[in-house]
Amino acid sequence: MEKALLVFIKIKNKRHGLHHEYKNRILIDLHEKFGKINTLEEQEELKNLAVSAGAKVISCIIHSQNDINPKYYISTGKLEEIKGIVSQYDCELIIFDNDLTPGQESNIEQKLGIKIIDRTRLILDIFAQRARSSEGKLQVELAQLNYLLPRLRGKGMELSRLGGGIGTRGPGEQKLEVDRRKIRKRIAQLESRINKIAVQRETQRKQRQEKQIFLASLVGYTNSGKSTLLNTLTRSDAFVKNMVFSTLDSTTRKIKIPEIDEILISDTVGFIEKLPHQLVAAFKSTLEEVKKSDLLLLIVDSSSANYENHIKSVMNVLKEIDVTHKTIIIVFNKIDLLDRSKLEKMKLKYKNAVFISALNNSGLKNLYEKIKYNVDKKRLEVYLKIPYSEAGDISFVYRNCKIIEKKYLEDSLLLLVNINPEIMGKMKKYLYRKK
After folding, report:
1. Which of 17, 30, 51, 175 could covalently link to 160 via disulfide, CB atoms 3.0 to 4.6 Å apart?
2. Does the pTM of the predicted model rise above 0.70?
3. Which letter, b or e, does each residue of 255-291 get, where b requires 16 or more Cβ atoms within 10 Å of its Cβ?
4. Calpha distance 280→317 (Å, rounded)
5. What CATH number belongs to 379-432?
6. Pick from 104, 102, 55, 57: which is nearest to 79 by CA?
7. Domain 212-376 belongs to what architecture?
8. Fold of domain 2-119
9. 129-168 pLDDT per residue, tens
10. Does 212-376 match 2-119 at the fold level?
């Protein structure tokens, strides 16, 4: 277990002293993160990430400075102070909550003689540990290589230069001397394989859409209880553990909603503040499941003091993948951990939200009703009068519609059905107005 020192830097003058190459990214980064005071919740989050990666957190440093130091990001005076702390506690690793440029990361390493990683590399390392499926491993490796590529220093640079441990899992463990050309070739191979998987996923989605199966997706901040809710709703056994990014792979299960047919519900990778763009890009095929959903359930850990920022972070990712136009129901989970007064205040503030405890099965009736309402919105209730001679169309209706009533007539079958508007055109010729 590596002994780690955590470093938070707040920049007061957000628009000064930026590297031209990284100007846009850093401006966005500063606007979203460092324009506010680091809270205990944010410190705790980085600590949890570090511990999840396998580190032992020795101490935490919070530093405020006017401008970014182009060479080290942090001021040289504070860097000297950190050097003393590293020596005093025999630290093996420094984790910056800030995103460092390749040059800054290299300069700090040379100055302190210790391994340096930023928040993005830490998250990539955790993903490398959590990936289980072949697709997940491919996606994580692609994200890591895209992160490492600009950090190489010339041809033949060893990816294993930092040795083992946090920040070197995945491609770094192979201990190969690779240059940019070889990395780009590997990236192309990974993208090709991931694209093939994406095509397979798209074929499955089209088959599902042809059958008009309603799909709801669970989205939310990491460790908000999505997998627990999936298990509760579907009586399944998806992997659940109280840790960040416990599951990376999309899991889809059938769920029976009272009074309607079965629908599909999909669990997705948890989000986090400043989710690395490399991961959003690499997990594009997995996140396509969210884009193709009919309904999004945004799961929120109501017991977190930072739950409102969690909602904003999730919405930012949903905006990045262009799905904010979809119907989104906010579901506050873990209400069993709240006192009554706080719960009532949240209910007053979020009147259209659902409040549940996936662990204790409370509040699920209201959630079912919300889902049912959205399923019914996508369906029409009509009478169809289909001649017995049209056996294929009768079979089609039975496969794709909910049958509410049926009556056998002399030459045809009269059905009252709940039908998806998207397939209404095919059945329009059988529409019947009951007198």
Report:
1. 175
2. yes
3. bebeebbebbbbbbbbbbbbbbebbbebbbbbbbbbe
4. 8
5. 3.30.70
6. 104
7. 3-Layer(aba) Sandwich (3.40)
8. Rossmann fold (3.40.50)
9. 877 778 888 888 988 898 888 877 533 344 444 446 776 6
10. yes
